[in-house]
Amino acid sequence: MSTEPQTQTEEELPFETANDRFKRSFGSWFWGSMTAAVLIHAAVMFLFPNMMATDVSYTMDEFEVMDLPPEIEIPPPPEQIQRPAQPVVTDAQIDEDITIAPTTFEENLPDDLPPPRSDSGGDLSDQPQFTPHDVAPRNTNNQAVARALEREYPSIYRDNGIGGTVLMHFFIDETGEVQNFEVAESSGHEGLDEAAMRVAPVFEFTPALNRDQAVPVWVQVPIAFRAR
User: What is the domain extent for residue 209?
Assistant: First the structure.
């Protein structure tokens, strides 16, 4: 039996792969790439424009010296405010039965209050005028006045929902009786103004007072007609 090694011919070699073919062509690819890189670098260096340095120096503005403002002296903080004193309950005994004396105008006469009107200046009831008083008259028969308003309200105005207010001047004597009256400001409807003149005599008042003395006065009283 022969022991010599047997050699394989080309027909007996295994199948060649793509990796094997790439390894065989590595040398040609390497040197081709190096040659192309050298040619490209040489062309770039030959064709690249020359670089010139430019002047990049700069100038600085001069600084202006400014005078500093004078130092301000800060005042010291204010002193602490003293706390208020605590209230103390007194031991004094106060009589609960305290009577205050009545105050009258005779004891405390004001300096600028005009004196009561005298009768020597003509008839005060002729026309409305200023009459000094400190207590105004007060109507005392509101129910009678309300019935008179209902009675004297013209039906043509009430049925059509027309109302208004008539401002009246009343002259009231020392007893509170109405002595004279007239329209001071119209309601805008003649019928309502005439009705107010018919209602005016129904009014009754307390007398006006000036320094605790009953005096005759002129006053203004509105008479209102309200349609329901």
Answer: 131-225
